[in-house]
Amino acid sequence: MKLNRFSITIVAVVVVVAATIPTASTRAAAPGSNISRIMKAAHTGRNSLANRAKAGKASAREIDALARMYRSLYNQKPPKGSAASWKQKTVAILRASETMKRKPTDPKARAAYSKALNCTACHRAHR
Ligand code: HEC
Q1: What span, in angstroms and rounded, lies between the C-alpha atoms of 76 and 74?
Q2: Is 44 in the pocket of ligand 1 (CB under 6 A)?
Q3: ∠104-101-112 over CA atoms, to 5°?
Q4: What's the pLDDT band for 18 if we cut at 50, 70, 90?
């Protein structure tokens, strides 16, 4: 192939783009990033999914999404603390959210969820 100015420009652009796009493996390597994402999606802000669920104001679909996030949380590895403690804490939240899914407005189910979802205790042990 004979290189003219146009083809050289194309090659240069391809090289620059390839060098700027991080590979999938680099992005997946950040430890705990999945936990952060779940924290932000479920727990952040006064009007968070968790707060609405506790107040009996989340839809069935939202509670279902919450339960899925807790299932994923259960399968993550925390940045610190023992695996046994992590499983124990996350399975309690997962079970409570699944009960709430069946009984979205039941005060007992919501109280059990609030009790299992202890932000400070978990952060002290695992964050
Ligand atoms: C089962 C354990 C657990 C529970 C319960 C928990 N967290 Fe977290 N949270 C973590 C861990 C672990 C991290 C650190 C994640 C990382 O840095 O990889 C974290 C990080 C966070 C972050 C920072 C997210 C970011 O990266 O910007 C926020 C905000 C947060 N949690 C809010 C809450 C709130 C609010 C509650 C209670 C409603 C809560 N969390 C309950 C384990 C928990």
Answers
A1: 6
A2: yes
A3: 75
A4: very low
Ligand 1 in contact with 42 (CB < 6 A)? no
Tell me the HSE value of 62 on the side-chain side, using a 13 A CA sphere: 18
Are the C-beta atoms of 52 and 42 separated by less than 8 Å?
Answer: no
> What pLDDT is attached to residue 82?
97
Q: Would you say residue 70 has pLDDT above 70?
A: yes
pLDDT tens for each residue of 73-103: 999 999 999 999 999 999 999 999 999 999 9
CA distances from 56 to 53, 61, 64, 108, 110 (A): 5, 13, 14, 11, 7
Q: Which of 34, 49, 74, 119 to mutate to test the pocket of ligand 1 (most atoms within 8 A of CB)?
A: 119
CB of 54 closer than 6 angstroms to any ligand 1 atom: no
